[in-house]
Amino acid sequence: MRTLAIGDIHGCLTALETLADHAAFAPDDQLVFLGDYVDRGPDSRGVIDYLIDLKKTAQVVTLKGNHEIMMMWCRQSEEALEKWLSYGGDTTLASYGIEEVNDVPPEHWRFMEDCFPFYETETHLFIHANLVPDQSLVTQLAGGTIFWEPFDPKQSKPHQSGKPFICGHTRQTGGRPVSVGHAICIDTGCYDPGGWLTCLDVDTGEYWQADQMGRKREGALELVPGE
Ligand SMILES: [Mn+2]
Question: Which of residues 225 and 57 earns the better pLDDT score?
């Protein structure tokens, strides 16, 4: 069984469909999506529909990203709504063909509410953004680090559990995922021209990428801890 982590999709349905084909998602794979399904790209609605469908036939874990949090918050105040719209929520509403966020289908709110804050296996930790190295993931849930804090490869410290962590959220400008041994960031900015959506096999370091033009490429990360 492969454990595959998939980075920030941001409404890029074409890249997601191309990636599913390129990485050959199979029923015995465990697919861990790192969050930020919505905003910025053209088809947030289509991405959520795709993931809801995928959950019916595949082993899927979906994490919550800060963009899902902003979208859920926007139902609570005008201020939160304005903030979300300025962070790409306008493209999400456009993908639904609606002007009022309350017209998002209940099934899609349920999908977002059901997303996990983090995911942990025997060997790895999965989070959207970053973590506090000397606290358990449960302990740090109340803080915002795992959803909001940018990942800096030069500053990153290993987590106390000793398990490597996989994150998204912070775009790696080279278009390739970045490993520092104890951590791997796989956000490769697929909503921007020149960006890619990344799927990483966390056990082998092999990765696959696809973009909004339907292009594919692949590579491999060195998983030996670096300096
Ligand atoms: Mn994010």
Answer: 57
